Amino acid sequence: MARKKKQWGLSMRKIREILRLGLQKGKCLREISRNCSIAHKTAGKYLRRAKELSLRYEQIVQMDDTELKRLLVKESESEKTRIRPEPDWKYIQK
Fold it and tell me: Which pTM value belongs to this model?
């Protein structure tokens, strides 16, 4: 039986719920994080991005998932291919 590939990030259903609770219901980050079982920093990240883009909840409802994800998730986060800098080996050897 094949293993499922591990998904990174939140599902679009959960992202939409974060935006609904924050933008439409006016809930605080702690309440959103409890309701969605996520960290409050994660909830804040999506709400902050939506506010930066001046998105209203009515606009979000009309968008499809791919369009919303393209707006909210930055390229570096969606690819999850971060290049780590090489350590300074000369310094470490001292």
Answer: 0.70
